[in-house]
Amino acid sequence: MASTAEQAVDNSENGGAAATGGPQRVRWYRSTFYNMTILGLCNLAAPGIWTAMNSLGAGGAQRPYLVNTANALTFCLMVVSCWVSSALVHYIGIKGALIFGTVGYAPYAAGLYANNRFGNEWLVILGAALCGISAGVFWMAEAAIAIAYPEPWNRGKALGYWLTYRLSGQIIGGAINLGLNADRSEAGKVSYTVFIIFITIQALGPFFGMLLTPPDKVERLDGKKVKLEIEGNPWPEIKRTTKLFFTKNFLLILFFIGQAVFSEAVFFTYLSLWFSVRARALGSFLSGIVAVTGGNLLGAWIDRTSIPLKIRARYAFWVIVTLQGAWWTWATVLVTRYHHTRPTYDWSTPGFGAGFGVFIFLTLGFQLNYLFLYFIVQNLSSDKQEVIRYSAILRGAESAWQAISYGIGSQVIIAEVGGIYLNFGLWAVAIIPAWLVIRKLGTKDHDISETDESETPSEIGQVNVEADTKRG
């Protein structure tokens, strides 16, 4: 029986279309909001805490070079695991893939703990490898779930809500580290106690994943069933995923993906090189809050179905691109100066605000770009199976760019200035190709059906819901 927390009105007697003219009845523990919350908790426990550690700069280490090398290994392996992840869904389902994807994160944190406390290096590399094998699968699974589970009019807000949890990990980690290191105004590594807390949280990831509702049991307000499965032989599925990568639309946004995610290693390395321990902790904390706010505002904008898709896509694109250009200009001027003056800024140091501010804004830019990429993929996908494939190649491409970024960031000159110069160049190169895709969204040249896009809660009663909306 349905609980008292059920939303909206009854189904028609046959469980089909919303004959009453309103939303469908759903049970809270199978609702999209519940499942986005579970997905968010998985995100917090796995990549959220990973981001928290790296947002301290160099994974909390005194120097970024070993950690950047380990992260490059992680992302190299993620390229492979992302690529085959849609085939893995064939065997263990999307829920199983999500759970599998969470298991490698705790060993990564354990490696950083051992290095921080005992100077051990081999466990950092092993932990990074285990993280890479599982994280690629996690990235695909969470992206597919985040795009496919919510109702059409809730997708932007759902994406913002889900990604809030990833940044919540960063905020929590920053707050803990700030409390433990508030008196440390010098450069150095963070307290090892912080990593014990991080390992504990990451170990909870698989248990959060077990609480996810399988796609066929999800109940949406529009009455439509969620299908996220890969049928048939997995080898043809891998070939279909590979073929999708080489489509014109995806290749055109490849550099836009690159300029978006290449920056993570760049601004985390920047923070570790030029700021004190407590300033790094403050940066982790404040940047997360700013990014959460900005991401949710962007999510609300792209959900404004009263505004044509064409307008939402174009306005969001040009605002993000313009702001990103301003921040890279600012960062380029600063690191050129820092390369010669070799500062260590604390919040009590003159000139702290200018250097610290650009880190906050670059973190905000990463979040805005990240969410906007999901919006693009959602509008390029023609069916639910293609959602899985696009999620796999998007996350695979992100991993490849981040492997390059962290890999070259292990070199001193790239860590200090070259990373920011390269990212600025990527930003410039990416604009025109990405615009060729964005300008078609919501126009007659956009060959993906937008029936889903135009639905609103008040219109659900007029939508013909397929027979498979029946619930047992």
Automatic annotation (TrEMBL):
Keywords attached to this entry: Membrane, Transmembrane, Transmembrane helix
InterPro entries hit by this protein: MFS (IPR011701), MFS_trans_sf (IPR036259), UNC-93-like_regulator (IPR051617)
Stretches that traverse the bilayer: 33-53, 65-84, 91-110, 122-147, 159-180, 192-212, 250-275, 281-303, 315-336, 356-377, 420-438
Localization per Swiss-Prot or TrEMBL: Membrane
Region span, Disordered: 1-20, 448-472
Record membrane topology: Multi-pass membrane protein
Bias type Polar residues, positions: 1-14
Name of the protein: Major facilitator superfamily (MFS) profile domain-containing protein
Lineage of the organism: Eukaryota, Fungi, Dikarya, Ascomycota, Pezizomycotina
